[in-house]
């Protein structure tokens, strides 16, 4: 034990930890690595305001033993996932929706019986997991996923976003023991491990204009003025390491407002979108106070930090001198520019710019701690209205804790969010703003910082419409969401979902207060579009209701959970509590034994390796042909084997803890890991999981277990 202790201490370098995640890198160039995901193909059809998305994921097994593939991937926060199929050869199996625990039971039973099966779970509204089991040697299994979402234009511009990669998450503030984000990542700059292609067709009743993408190089064709066909150009490098964002306008910046109707199986659904009034040019501005909360953690290191600096500078230099501001930088801890808000004079603005200039980014992302400190900071005066502006990539796993904290402090501040990066956590960013009845903004590139800052300034000038009410006369509506409509800013339409009884007649009337006085707009229900093509409304209505019940609240009871389950089962939707399972009847693996392989995720574009806490030398779980070696004694074997395989990993943890104790099974499996903190040994599941994800160069064979203790 003394020898291994000396070797490990001698090898300790100056390498520091960044994000405390559970996500090690995967060296995908490892010989004989099994990479299960062969390709992802996305087909998008946008009709009016509704997008229909079909994703085809093809899995393969190039190894020589059966595998179970696990893949974490993102979808839109607004996605209503309503269908899944599994195809093997010429057989296609339709998945069934189950309550989550029952789905797991059905899936496990199928795998144990030697059948191929696939299961789709939701971990967050924007984070999903696909499990595909009993993929045999040379098998190819295709999983088709179908979802819909409604596109809501802002200032006349439509935006379709297809998320491609779940960025690494800091889990240090998450006390639930969740292992969702314990995934392998490729190093920055490593080529995608699977093929990715995407095609979009826009079919509009209004001529289409200005189709563009700042994230990918695209080819656009127009069969006619109302149809646009978009595809990816071949020169796109690693297209799956960043979100695909498509923007387009209608001729004259019109929006496709109006009433959509759908009737099916005794239920009737509607969706109403209304363009808000124009902003008044005569509104008086009042002095405001801003607290900028800037993420300077490891995942923001490099390019994202430079975008943040440019964004913050653009926000600051255009504030009037009557406004006040302060800056809080946060990572593992936090620091504040001033002990009280500063007037936005030229001198004070320069102080803020200098404060951020030398920041490089590093450490974990203690968001909850930063928000708590922000709420405690003194105001400009007792009556001032404060807006907190959070600038981050959102790579944390404490979304619900953040929503709850903001909800508890709604009277203290509005919370705006700025997402910085190519694949930000939109659930966190959108949710924090939604709970606060504010808005979220995204800057994926340096070139967008100016436009995004200008968009924010236009947003905060004043609301376009307040005290909004909806009234239905002669139109029997119920289950309407949202139940109350928040103030409308930034030329974003009013959007209402609901159900109705009887005939589609009567009127819908929207009233409110605008800068020009009382606003009122009436719509005749008979002018709405009733069509079988509007089937997506039943899924979108149910998804909106689930959002209200579950997405942005933490304090929900069993009754709410049961409502979500019932909605998921009735409308065939994947939710936090319901999952899709597809089972093939053919028995292909009589033993039921299989190797679990986690699909490596690409490091998001412009994100440095410091976003992941483990060292770049850590290997992910891959299939490697191992050689056996004989060692005379247990201690010699354990010491030599452990030193050769894990020293470079353990030495870094000795910088953080007083000691580490590792229990090794007779077959080389790491059974238990304990850390020494203030004289007490504490079990650590994170280190245990990371060690077991590493691949040993040799098989450990000794016939009994061994415990190794390493102390500083």
TrEMBL record:
Residue ranges constituting the VWFA domain according to the UniProt record: 289-460
UniProt superkingdom: Bacteria
PROSITE patterns found in the cross-reference section: VIT, VWFA
SMART domains linked to this entry: VIT, VWA
InterPro entries noted in UniProt: VIT, VWF_A, vWFA_dom_sf
Matches recorded under Pfam families: VIT, VWA_3
Gene source species: Kordia aestuariivivens
Protein name as it appears in the record: VWA domain-containing protein
Ranges in coiled-coil conformation: none
Every VIT domain range: 21-149
